[in-house]
Amino acid sequence: MALDPADLYDIRSELSEEERAVQESVARFTDERVLPIIGDCFDQARFPHELVPEIAGLGLLGATLPEEYGGAGLNSVAYGLICQELERGDSGLRSFVSVQSSLCMYPIFAYGSEEQRRAWLPRMAKGEVIGCFGLTEAHGGSDPASMKTRARRDGGDWVIDGAKMWITNGNLAHVAIVWAQTEEGVQGFVVPTDTPGFGAQEIHRKMSLRASVTSALFLDGVRVPEAARLPGAQGLKGPLGCLTQARYGITWGPIGAAIACYREALAYAGERMLFGRPLAATQAAQIRLAEMARRITLAQLLSLRLGRLKDAGAMQPAQVSLAKWNNCRMAIDIARDCRDLLGGAGITTEHAAIRHGLNLESVITYEGTETVHQLVIGREVTGINAF
Length: 387
Hints:
single chain, Butyryl-CoA Dehydrogenase, subunit A, domain 2
């Protein structure tokens, strides 16, 4: 019996019935609603905002949160498959869902008060309220401890001053999760974006994540009440815990991008005639396609195991770093090689490889660069911190 070229180890057979149903549902959405428009969205540098209600209707926003807060109560593997199938469409769309779910809804759920959960999460799950995550600053993306944004108490309020950079959804957001230095250490705040003194400026001229909104945030005397502070987040463990959640999804997302490029190159190699035979009949092409299949298979196994560990409550941050490092490197290398196999056709956005390759330049950088994750593993195996 022939194997699925994009699932050589039959990972699908390891999934539960619910996990398979989730993957099929999101795959169908990606095929029918995302792929027909996403090339044009990338060309036009336009986020497909019209898809947000459908994404919400499928239960993809805050999918792992309990149903009482608007979530779907899915397990971590199902959420990973959501990320994989969305990124098979485009990294920008998966980034939107990751930020909304892992970086905005998760901290409200994990660190927020019950009042905050009830006020925000159901509306965010419906896509009525869009969030952004304000941690990164221009001078120190990989060093959040050096953040310059400050929040100070003023009576019963907090006043926040500072700026954030490279913020996904910034100009779409109705609410921002803002992290700031205080006299009690780093703390998080739920800040409505219509608060006086809050501003967002979209970043243009991007050659990556063009179908995504990326912004700079500015906070000039932004005043919020004590009720806006996330009471369960104290110190850098708060934002870093959110990043671990987001990185987990990112370990799955690039698998989808790699599969999209691989399937496209495989089909092209079977049709493209050179010197009287298909490109796929040459040893050079077969070796390259086989190498792609090997690396995709290893990434699939890595993320599946990570998801099972996460659902068992046994996942460690270093394990997430290993998978993020491996799977992003796998995907960007495959995208580049597929672009080459497509020849001149590969430089246009009529084909997926160049778009995915450009997007992955961001994915391999955000949520910890490749070097940062290499050093996390280096610290884990040697016991020595080389940061």
